[in-house]
Amino acid sequence: MIDLLEISFIKNAIVGGLLLAVLLSVLSLFIVVKNWSFINVGISHAAFGGLAIGFYLGLNPTITGLIFSIVVGFLIGYISKHGKLHEDVSIGILFSFSMAFGVLIISLVPNYSSDLFTFLFGNILTITNTDVYMLTAFTFFTLLFLYLFFQKIMFCCFDEDVAYSAGVNTSFYYYTLITLIAIATVLSVKLVGVILASAMMILPAAFASQFFWHYKKIILFSVVFSCIIVLTGIYISYIYDLPAGAFIVFLYSFVFGGVLLFKSLIKRH
Amino acid sequence: MEKVLEVKNLEVALNGKEILKDINLDIFEREIVAIVGPNGGGKTTLLKTCLGFIKPKKGYVRLLGKNPKEAVRIGKVGYLPQKPVLPTKTYLSALDVVLFGFIHSKLSKKEKIKKALDILKIVGMEKHAYRHYSDLSGGQQQRVSIGRVIAQEPKIIFLDEPSTGIDVVAQESFYDFLKKIRDEKGISIVMVTHDVGTVAEFVDKVIGLNKYMHYLGDIKGFFQKDILEKLYGTEVKLLVHSPECVSCEHFHMDFKR
Prior knowledge:
The structure holds two protein chains of two kinds. Chain A is globular. Chain A is built from twelve helices and no strands. Chain A is mainly α. Chain B is an alpha/beta fold. Chain B is 37% helix and 24% strand. In chain B, helix 4 crosses helix 5.
């Protein structure tokens, strides 16, 4: 592992991977409490449309991806809150549209296939120093924001109407949380891609909740567990030349599935 | 006495359907008021309009002398919904939920925890302080939620069917408890209820609501055949539970058999 750190791109992958492990694990608590798994899937798929626009127009895809995801995130959030359609239906339509839009745009660019694969499933080798700086700044900002307003955000997740009546600006925290999720999704695209990004934001807290019920323990366990999984995933995928993002999500799901199976076997006996 | 809630010429429509019309009422500090009426009569809508969740079509609401949205921002309005849409698992302890009541408080974390534990004692939930809120029974959750509301030190509390999930014996002690906090803290309480019989001895005022306000006054005046028939839109048979009550005797005899 120490030898690996001497290789620049692996160093970026490890630092970037660990930052994402911390960031996504903390956000995953809110996604699990709010039951936002599908909203999260919608936002992550929407990122693809934004990335494709940037790629087609020759702009920085991360920037266009961020703008597109935040807009779609707000739209999904608004429809979930005020829409007359069931939120699952509206999210399903929005993310299918974004994916279809992304594929159409990408198909207009010559030699698009390899980039399409990178967007969809990530490529750890493409994490640059700039990506690491952006991730560091965003992770720091997100953790600071959550630290300062944690109780108010948890109150909104617990019962939005009651939080509003107690004087909490619920709309501000609702849309800020969606924005943070949208940005985190786009920043995790290079590691795991748009399709697997949502898994990295759902699995940590879902896994931790199998052992603990209190949010403090869930956050702590999610972060430690995710860091171990990400490091193991990067190491094994490097040794056996496997796609790191896919392998990390596979590891998460494998351990999660194993624990569920083990728990159900214990219950039966 | 200070006026805590003022409703004038209120009209509310939802999806084009008129739910409330010509509602006028004043509620003063230290008053306990019950809003009663048939299902779909607009009781919860009135409560939600007073809290600023619903915008009136006509008229206005002044809560603590302000527009409802401004009034709730101060954090001095308590609210207990009928069927809260809670996450399946909250990942919060009963203590965490009471601590939400201190969201605007400038006390230190240690002091907030101490006060929250004292409140849990008042609502008889001190033994459950560190249990998962989602694992508590409906009645226990209700007590913890009341604890959260008390922690806010509100000037007015809105309760929507507060006895839901509480057994009959616990209901009386719950209303006794509400009366106690009203007396001690000078809070006004507005509650929506179906069971006017149970709350009768605890309330100062009754509002009979079925789209229009059919009654506003004390509990004695409410139990009039014509008022109840107008309110519920059907013929009403009054049963008075007293030793002289013939219907009750029959009921008791049938029950014994």
